[in-house]
Amino acid sequence: MIYLWIILAVLIIWFIALYNGFIRLRTRTGEAWADIEVQLKRRYDLIPNLVSTVSGYAKHEKSVFEKVTEARAKSISADSSGNIKDLAQAENMLTGALKSLFAVSEAYPDLKANVNFLELQRELSDTENKIQAARRFYNGNVRDLNIKVETFPSNMVARMFNFAKKEFFDIPDAGPESQPVAVKF
């Protein structure tokens, strides 16, 4: 009879440990997503300042500024919708628009020497690095949660308490920057 109680106690402890593991992973995934949102907000706040600085030098490059502004608005909208795939696509568009903005800045030597522009460019670059780090942290937590949701026997506990798989935050490589660089001598 004592063995039955011991087995029951071990099963209860195991069950509690699995459940708490799911709670821990779900919380860490939420924290990681919040980190991404903080960095995206920082990025969205920097972009108008950058556009304003560049537009003072390159007034006739109106279409580039419109694309950046439009891409920023779509990213903010996708971020607030909570759909990870839409946000990834919008972020890809915004990255491309920012690249074209920096390409425009190359044609203006005075702009490239402007302290405000250089500081904004440095801040944006730093923010991009933080977004990548936050994305890796989030995706690592999502991977761990998804593995636990799908593997036996934890999948039984996941089903009982409605723990579901999460989507990775992947930015698709659709532009020319995803192609390998051709090196010719």
Automatic annotation (TrEMBL):
Signal peptide positions on this chain: none
TM ranges: 6-23
Main subcellular location: membrane
Keyword Kinase annotated: no
Pfam families: LemA
InterPro entries: LemA-like_dom_sf, MamQ_LemA
The organism's place on the tree of life at top rank: Bacteria
Any one cellular-component term (Gene Ontology): membrane
Membrane topology: Single-pass membrane protein
Location of this chain's protein in the cell: Membrane
Keywords: Membrane, Transmembrane, Transmembrane helix
Keyword Membrane: yes
Entry similarity comment: Belongs to the LemA family.
Protein name: LemA family protein
